[in-house]
Specification:
Layout: E1 2-3, E2 8-13, E3 16-23, E4 29-34, E5 39-43, E6 48-53, E7 60-61, E8 85-90, E9 97-99, E10 106-108, H1 112-118, H2 122-125, E11 127-132, H3 143-158, E12 163-167, H4 173-183, E13 184-185, E14 190-193, H5 206-217, E15 224-229, E16 236-241, E17 245-247, E18 256-258, E19 265-268, E20 274-276, E21 289-290, E22 298-302, H6 311-317, E23 322-327, H7 338-346, E24 351-355, H8 368-375, E25 379-380, H9 386-399, H10 403-411
Parallel strand pairs: 8-11, 8-12, 12-14, 14-15, 22-23, 23-24, 24-25
Antiparallel strand pairs: 1-7, 2-3, 2-6, 3-4, 4-5, 9-10, 13-21, 15-16, 16-19, 17-18, 19-20
This protein binds aspartic acid (ASP).
């Protein structure tokens, strides 16, 4: 028995029957979309698959309808049709992961080429070139990883890529997206994409996210963006600006949200239609520029009630060059912190104040504590997310050793991180 994309099948595993349509699947797995809208993935050697309705063209198969079912179903583009050239750079994360049955843990095992092979629809959208940058979970990334990644993106654009997709772990995707937003001025779309659930798991979001990312990579939106599920259903993905996005849920497929901004737009999964909601930089509007400098010795300090201000001494005495404070409300710390903040300023370490509220804008002119913070030299981060403020600080201090110049740059909007008007 042979199965291919679009076939209706029933799958029996351990006495339970699952029904649905065959989706693009990794080798050794069969993924179906169930009537509930959820995807379910199965290891093909552990299930019995029965064909219910034949809907597409035959591709591969094996055994007695149980063992090897591959769902390639690749529709190759018409000969002679010129598709845009897109580079796909893999870094690891869940989108490149499957369960390692030896350990039971999810590990990054797929390369960019494996992802391309597993999602045949991609080949209808663009002419892809795969490149492996790393195979790590994104919690293992650091500023060196961002620089290597940015360098590879620049190389691909210089070599003629009309768009770049970066497959990335979701945990720290917003840091990497922010880092590239400051490091690179891009004439083409640079799209981060990941998945919350690995390819062999029920309801994996990898194929839909990758297909939507490819649509954005060939679009007019020439910015560093994050493309991920917009809702828990398989209806559309959202396109988030790299400096305004945050992972807001541990496991939901629609975990990524734009904060203090609307998303740039949405991509419809079935039609590929892109709708935009805010202004964005268009393809070719900017020329490629690359400023990779990064200062790793920067940190975020979260103020909590009663927290000992002496914690700031650690950073002063250990060679740190700048701090982001995650203050309360409009951007506050307790009065006891003010002398230490002055000490940080005397050490010529810029301090950006952001808010634990995440939503809204910093204003340190309302209460005494805020005014004292400003007098001590703190910089209001406006409506910048704390993580983005940290990456901005690292980038700015990687560009200049001049304290006054750095403070001037930190007050500016450098990559869309400060919006003029915060959403109510
Ligand atoms: N821990 C993983 C990572 O960030 C999670 C994911 O990719 O969704 O690499």
């Amino acid at each position: 028995m042979e199965f291919k994309q679009g076939d209706r099948v029933s799958i029996e595993r351990n006495g339970t029957v699952y029904e649905g349509k065959v989706m693009p699947s990794m080798e050794g797995y069969i993924t179906i979309k169930m009537n509930s809208g959820y995807n379910a993935g199965f290891s093909t050697d552990k299930v019995r698959v029965t064909l219910q309705e034949n809907n597409g063209e035959t591709v591969n198969g094996g055994g007695n309808g149980v063992k090897e079912c591959k769902t390639r179903g690749e529709k190759l583009p018409e000969p002679g049709k010129k598709l845009p050239k897109i580079a796909i750079l893999s870094t690891g994360g869940t989108i490149a992961s499957k369960i390692d049955y030896r350990t039971g843990a999810v590990t990054s095992q797929f390369t960019a080429d494996d992802i391309l092979a597993a999602i045949p629809e991609l080949k209808e959208i663009a002419d892809f070139k795969g490149r492996v940058i790393s195979s790590i979970l994104s919690e293992n990334m650091d500023s060196d990883s961002w620089q290597n990644l940015a360098k590879a993106v620049v190389e691909e654009i210089e070599a003629g890529a009309e768009g770049v997709i970066i497959t990335h772990g979701t945990d720290t995707m917003m840091y990497s997206a922010a880092a590239l937003s400051f490091m690179i001025e891009t004439p083409v779309p640079v799209v981060f994409v990941g998945s919350q659930r690995s390819a062999d798991r029920p309801s994996s979001d990898n194929a839909m996210n990758a297909i939507c990312a490819a649509r954005v990579a060939i679009s007019e939106i020439a910015e560093i963006v994050v493309v991920m599920h917009g809702t828990t259903s398989d209806d559309f993905c959202e396109i988030h600006r790299g400096t305004k996005v945050r992972k807001m849920h541990t496991s939901r497929r629609d975990a990524f949200k734009s904060v203090n901004s609307l998303p740039i737009g949405t991509v419809d999964y079935s039609t590929g239609e892109i709708k935009t909601f805010i202004d964005y930089t268009r393809r070719g509007e900017k020329t490629l520029k690359f400023k990779p400098g990064m200062e790793p010795k920067c940190a975020i300090v979260k103020f909590t009630p009663g927290a000992d201000p002496a914690v700031l001494d650690y950073y002063i005495n250990n060679g740190y060059r700048g701090l982001v404070i995650e203050g309360t409300g409009l951007g506050h710390v307790s009065t006891k912190w003010i002398p230490l903040l002055r000490k940080v300023g005397d050490a010529k370490m810029p301090v950006i104040v952001t808010s634990q509220c995440l939503n809204g804008r910093i204003c340190d002119r309302v209460y005494d504590t805020g005014r004292d913070m400003l007098k001590a030299g703190a910089i209001e981060g406006e409506d910048t997310l704390p993580e983005t403020a940290l990456v901005k600080l690292m980038w700015v201090l990687g560009q200049t050793d001049d304290f006054e110049k750095a403070v001037g740059m930190l007050r500016e909007d450098l990559g869309g991180e400060i919006t003029e008007c915060t959403l109510k």
